[in-house]
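Narrative progress, year one. The postdoctoral researcher (J.K.) led the effort to move from monomer predictions toward full complexes, under supervision of the PI. The following entry was the first complex the group processed end to end, covering 492 residues in total.
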Amino acid sequence: MTRPEIVLFGDSITEQSFTLGGWGAALADTYSRKADVKVRGYGGYNTRWALFLLHQIFPLDSRKPPAAATIFFGANDAALLGRTSERQHVPLEEYKENLRKIVLHLKECSPTMLIVLITPPPVDEEGRDKFARSLYGEHARRLTERTNEAAGVYAKECLELAEEMGLRSINLWSKFQETEGWQKKLLRDGLHLTPEGNAAVHQEVVRVFKEAWLSAEEMPYDFPHHSVIDGKNPEKAFEQQCIKHI
Amino acid sequence: MTRPEIVLFGDSITEQSFTLGGWGAALADTYSRKADVKVRGYGGYNTRWALFLLHQIFPLDSRKPPAAATIFFGANDAALLGRTSERQHVPLEEYKENLRKIVLHLKECSPTMLIVLITPPPVDEEGRDKFARSLYGEHARRLTERTNEAAGVYAKECLELAEEMGLRSINLWSKFQETEGWQKKLLRDGLHLTPEGNAAVHQEVVRVFKEAWLSAEEMPYDFPHHSVIDGKNPEKAFEQQCIKHI
């Protein structure tokens, strides 16, 4: 049996999801022996740059397209004009249209793909400021390159698109802010995730996948569990899955 | 650019390699944006049962076979006859021949695949005994189902085969025992790995891959790093890799 594939497509928060305690690695563990988790995270990328990658990551002629994908962009798109990261800024309307293009491409790739949109997380401006000072010292700009307000506006747009297109979504911007002390508890530099923040994302993704049809508990193991293999007649357990012995 | 794939083929120590602090997840992070790590670990499996999976996991007609694979069996093969886990026992000579069959199949799959054999880790009999008691209480057998001596004999056989076939190998059985207090420091139940044990395996695999030709530092990113993307002319960075915009 070949396992279905789950692709995590996004920016640095996706790219770093296999660091210690990361949500991507935890997801791979949740779907252990049931689905493969493939990371396609690109630090610093916005939705405009992500469009260049679509045909490579999700080729239309794939014989086995992914069963599910998370689309997790916006943290860079929401970087403010006139500040340090303006190169990454993408106007709000374009952000939404880019997300739409990504979704349409994935649907063309496979009409049955489970697509989950994830909003950018909230921004802890104090944390960003501290991070900038750790990099640039006194030369750090007085105004942070991202604000929580802007991230919230992009998050809202992401949710609206999910609604319009009938997709499932995770409102991380709101979800995180429900936690007392989210600024330091869930974020390590005002933007990227602590292990607790990673655990929260993992939990949300598992929940949404389960609410759709991708529940790990209900999925079969790829091969027999060792406990059902008869030590004297091992072939029996494998024959049921039509597996040829070498 | 499609990323090369690294397959981790083995028993529970491979299956559990994506738990928190696991060596598989750490490897995926080391090769972030450079190679994909695919886990094919089967708890409780010995080499005899692993043979049933070969054609499924490593199909001979694959258009893109893995670039590298770790083969990490033996902990179950070395379970002793006449004790609790004897169902999993595989005689020493057969263990070696099964490993040989696995390697030959992988080489048929791709003659250039980097194949690394990993020996079983040492066994902390006291830890196994404690674990058995935690499961079966007073009914636990007095004699543990695995011994360090037996694991060492299987490890030696694994290394001999690697030598015979000109393959790289990791002598985990010896390596672990170089660490003072390895019994509790590197193993959590006398057999499976603690986070420190996982870190040690990760370090060894990275070292051996690097000594071969699979050095993460020397491999290119799959797509441009965001810092080389011109905000006003993003296409330039992507054109160099012949990437079509959607």
